[in-house]
Every structure is written in C-alpha cells, then in structure tokens.
Amino acid sequence: MKRVIIFTGGNVDIKFLMQQDFSNDYLICADHGLEVADRLGLTPNLLVGDFDSVDPIIFSHYEKKEGIKIIRFQPEKDNTDTDLAMRFAMEYKPEEILLFGAFGTRLDHTLANIGLLTQAMEKGIKAVLWDTYNRISMIRDICYLHKKEVFGKFISLLPFGGDAEKVTLKGFKYPLQNGTMVSGSSLGISNELVEEEGMIQVGKGKLLVIESRDSIK
Fold first, then answer.
1. CB within 8 A of 178, min separation 6: which ones?
2. Which of 34, 47, 87, 193 has its CA 20 to 30 A from that of 142?
3. Contact (Cβ atoms closer than 8 angstroms) between residue 144 and residue 199
C-alpha cells in the first residue's frame, strides 16, 4: 500500500509510535513534528512549515542532510503547517494518509485537523488521525469494519458539517436502518461492533468514524 505518514506538532506517545512500522512509508514532518521523527530515528522525505516551533538545532541537523526536501513558509500564512502537510501528502497520490500529533492543548488546531479529513475524502484518499486512544476517519458513502482490526472497544459516529441522512448500521450493538443522525446530537456515541464485520452506510452527508479505547491495557 502506498502510504504517507505525517508527524505534526500535537501530543504524541513515542512508545505507541515505536510499535508502528513506518519503514516503507513516505514521511512528511510539519514543523515541530520533525522532533518526533528525530526521537524515532526516522529520516523524513519532506519538511513543511514555517519552522517557528521546532528546535533549531534539530532542524539545522536535518537541513544539512541530503535527500530531504524542505518547503519553508512565512509564519503569516493562511494555512496551518498541518494543512500544508496534508496538501503535499495528497499530491503524492497515496492510498492512505496517517496523521500523528493531530491532537493537543490547542482545541482550535485539533478541530481544524479533524476538518482536514474532508480534503482527503473528496479526493478518494483514506485519511486517519491516530493517537494512543483514538483513530478517526471520515466517510460519506459506505465502509466496512472488521472486529479483529478495530482500534479499541468503542465506535462513535458523528455527523460532520450538517446532518447525515439515510444512515444504516449493520453488525453493531445498536443497529440503524435509514436513520438520520442530527448534527449536534450525541446519538452515535459509544456504539460497539458485535459481529465479525460491520457496515456503515451514509446516503447523504458525512460521518466521522471514531474508534476509541479508554486505556491501553
């Protein structure tokens, strides 16, 4: 699978990331995300951002390395560093984009990062925001989940950008048939997959699919 990994400037769990295999992926670091790659001993393919938050010593080290493309922007810009990284990731035309460090103390950045999933979805690219406790993707038609691959016990479905209509859920503890999930409602929180395969179908609108776990035990 042709895959792009993005490290950005939010909270990350290095132990969790060390469990992942990034050896065959195209790696993009957005500003402070370079420090994540450095701690993991990974060499990025592309550095993007204004580089106002990365350790200058670390940045200087990678700046001198051959084979790393660096695209620098002014701090006064219309898009966040993560947004820019997502745009460059899509130019690579991958099958999947995994973004780590999308959640942190800045709620505005977290919400904006969730919104970035729309960009990839509209281009037919699966994009995922992933941390130790949550894995978030977005759908607007149909997707299938397999119990052995689900990340955590809970699967929450939240409409994004308006109501989601004609929603059908099969294989879940709380099934649904051609229902409407109203924006601002908590109806879709904490569902669970009870069959080996679950189906989520949306007739109109978009849904966030949030796979969550309360602990890492």
1. 166, 167, 168, 203
2. 87
3. yes
Long-range contacts of range 69-76, CB-CB < 8 Å, 24 or more positions apart? 69/45, 70/46, 71/46, 71/47, 73/48, 73/49, 74/50, 75/50
Could you give the percent of the chain with pLDDT greater than 70?
99
Question: Is the CA virtual torsion 163, 164, 166, 171 positive or negative?
Answer: negative
Other Cβ atoms less than 10 A from the Cβ of 98: the count is 20
**Between 215 and 111, residue with greater pLDDT:** 111
Q: What are phi and psi of 125, to 5 degrees?
A: -105, 130
The owner of tokens 């592309």 is: 46
174: Cα separation from own chain's centroid: 25
What pLDDT digit, counting tens, does each position of 181-198 carry? 999 999 999 999 999 999
